[in-house]
Amino acid sequence: MSNTELPLVEIHHKYMARAFMLAEQAFENDEIPVGAIVVYKGQIIGKGYNQVEMLNDPTAHAEMLAISAACETISEKYLSDCTLYVTLEPCPMCAGAAVWSKLGRIVFGAQDAKSGGCGSVFNIVSNNKLNHRVEVIQGIMESESEYLLKEFFKQKRT
Residue 5: what pLDDT? Predict the structure, then answer.
């Protein structure tokens, strides 16, 4: 069955499951388990998972890596016809990158009550003072994403 035949929520779930697999990879690499993919016309054109510790780079968030890969794949700096799927609500840095890359949509799983940039703490992607606004859909695979994050931090505390 092609994407055009699936209901939108099932399409979102399909791609979020791919992002979740990347979050599991981050978990296995002892990184905060966040995974992200960028989809353009039904194709994954960028993907990433948190690699902050591995690369010693505070900007190596899943979303930043996925956005950079997507731009490289299509040889464009703007991703207006693309959707970013990410297991955790983007932070202010990643939300800013979504605005600057003119992403069309962000679909995320779990909210980030401490540093969310898409509505929880800040709402960078919908700020009327910026030159672009990004559509946001939240709560796709929310419980699975929250569980993985809680397990990661539970292991860190023991």
Answer: 63
Mean pLDDT of the chain: 96
Q: What are phi and psi of 49, to 5 degrees?
A: -140, 160
Task: Output the pTM of the full model.
Answer: 0.95
DSSP 86: E
Phi and psi, residue 81, nearest 5°: -100, 20
Nearest to 21 by CA among 151, 141, 158, 156: 141
Distance CA(60)–CA(83), nearest Å, equals: 19
**Does the pLDDT value for residue 135 go beyond 60?**
yes
> Distance between CA atoms of 138 and 122, rounded to whole angstroms?
15
Residue bearing tokens 């794949």: 73
pLDDT exceeds 90 at position 99: yes
Q: Which of 45, 37, 8 is nearest to 21 (CA)?
A: 37
146 an active-site residue? no
Q: Which of 5, 24, 63, 146 is catalytic?
A: 63
